[in-house]
């Protein structure tokens, strides 16, 4: 049967590499078109990769934990499918090395005698020669077959890979094998140590906890790792946050009549999108030599899910009607909470909105998600005391907004002007709906 590759798929517009998380089939297993074969993760989500033809999984070339460029083979499949055009565009399989030619002449079939040792010892009787010590087997981690993730986990835990039982194909150590070995090692009782009188410093010093089980299921832990990676990148960006109380009085009255049923989140997302469209600098990406402009506006909306924080992107929300946007916000939020992780939902963001007002939070600052230049935090909408232009005490319906900005892209005054423009849109429903 022809041998064709199963390639690392491109699951989003920005995806360049994918990491193999778990193989759902083993070499020799039959697979059918549409069968989930492997779980792959990007920097955003985990996705099951499906076979696109019937066949037999012949060889896995990317073990669990391997990071593979998009379009490169992660496995080889034997198939009798007629449409094999995909194989024309795949890299060829590595060729087997050609064995060296045998020497000519009668000595071809004769065994080659072992070389004699050089020097005076050659003619010494065997009884006087120094005994030969056999070479110790190579048990270093470099000589053990293991996936990269397994090596990293073992190195962090100080575990010798040669002591781990492999369960992967071709006796390859998987990440789960290392975790099992670490758990077994840590469950053994520590050897008794002679008691010693504690020093004052030892009495006061906190005791480090023993290594324990990681919290959350594998999907939750992978999402935490992805979030951690993004936040580490965010910490390298010089960023600042400006705050302003946004007056929502006129919109509150409009929500009782013409905008009835429209959520505050949808209204504020639209106002933020209008500001990003008005200020191209804040809608751009810092690329080292300047700011790269974006022709589209993509607002990533932070959604709290059972697995953790996810931020699906709303494409050009300023160009939808407010009711269309409100319907889209609800659909996307519901899909994400149900576990729909379509990678297309997570690409194209040029700014992020994080709303904790529904949880009673009044004010916080959101961190940037690279390469986005801004992030908008929204607190609770409610009635607040204020002083009007005549110096009289009044009640205002407002919420606290914080605009976090990449300082390489813009300055504090630019952020202040952006929040002022947002207030202008929110103060006039006609402008917001135009």
How much β-strand is present in the residues? 15-25%
Strand-and-helix sequence, N→C?
Answer: EEEEEEEEHHHHHEHHEEEEEEHEEEEHH
Number of helices: 10
The oligomerization state is single chain
Shape type: elongated
Distance between the termini: 62 Å
Low-confidence stretches: 83-139, 193-205
Average pLDDT figure: 79
> How many strands?
19
The class by helix and strand makeup works out as: alpha+beta
Structure, described:
- By secondary structure, this protein is of the alpha+beta class.
- 25% of the residues lie in helices and 22% in strands.
- It is built from ten helices and 19 strands.
- Strands 9, 12, 15, 16, 17, 18 and 19 form a seven-stranded mixed sheet that branches. Strands 1-8-6-3 form a four-stranded antiparallel sheet, with no helix packed on it. It has a four-stranded antiparallel sheet with strand order 5-4-2-7, with no helix packed on it.
- The longest helix has 18 residues, at 218-235.
- The protein is elongated, with a radius of gyration of 31 Å.
- The two termini are 62 Å apart.
- The model is unreliable at 83-139 and 193-205 (pLDDT under 50).
Kindly list the characteristics that best describe this protein:
single chain, 434 residues, alpha+beta, seven-stranded mixed β-sheet, 19 strands
In short:
Helices cover 25% and strands 22% of the residues.
List the helices and strands and how they pair.
Layout: E1 3-7, E2 17-23, E3 30-31, E4 36-41, E5 46-50, E6 55-60, E7 67-69, E8 73-78, H1 85-88, H2 148-157, H3 175-187, H4 200-204, H5 218-235, E9 239-247, H6 249-255, H7 264-278, E10 285-286, E11 291-292, E12 298-301, E13 303-305, E14 308-310, E15 313-315, H8 322-338, E16 351-355, E17 374-378, E18 382-387, E19 393-406, H9 412-427, H10 429-433
Parallel strand pairs: 12-16, 16-17
Antiparallel strand pairs: 1-8, 2-4, 2-7, 3-6, 4-5, 6-8, 9-19, 10-11, 12-15, 13-14, 17-19, 18-19
